[in-house]
Amino acid sequence: xxxxxxxxxxxxxxxxxxxxxxxxxxxxxLPSLPSEFYAVVQTTALYLDKDAEYPPSVKRTTVWYDSVHxxxxxxxxxxxxxxxxLYRRYDKGMExxxxxxxxxxxxxxxxxxxEKMPSPEWPETLSYxxxxxxxxxxxxxxxxDNGYYKVDYYETVGPVRVPVLIxxxxxxxxxxxxxSGPIDQDIFHFxxxxxxNCTKVPNHVGFPYVHLLYTYLRF
Length: 219
Known about the structure:
By secondary structure, the chain is mostly beta strands. Helices cover 0% and strands 49% of the residues. The radius of gyration is 19 Å and the shape is globular.
């Protein structure tokens, strides 16, 4: 049976799609992600007041991801305003963070990196549930269920499977844009005008991982 994902007042529910059932299309492999892609992912905290300015319930992350050359760039927005940028150069063992504070000049920090670029990780408890219509797209439906919580992962049906939505009890991850393919390497160059004023993170402790697609993809 097909379902649409419907949101009302910050909550998420599944309702039966018009037209009844759709054919089941099996898949023999776990979800997959391309090694190079551009994506825009919007996260919605379902338990926060969507009308409150702070803390923002909706955030948006724009990502240029290149695991072939071991590079990531991410731009972060909240309330429609940019507030942070992150350049992770696993190829050089360096990372840079730029912070945007309203009414102030941009500030930046850098740190050395020792860890390798993480690969996507799919849990052993992830099981295939068939096909659903989600966000108006025909999707494979996967579910992680460890007895304490459930996570629903949706990706498009087709030769190239594109992530569409991850739904958890408290958070939705909506993939608004996704384009696979080689990334222009100039994208990963840190702005030269900011480099002279960049300060070192004490003891090179670095910055926390960004979980772009729940725990399944981090960098």
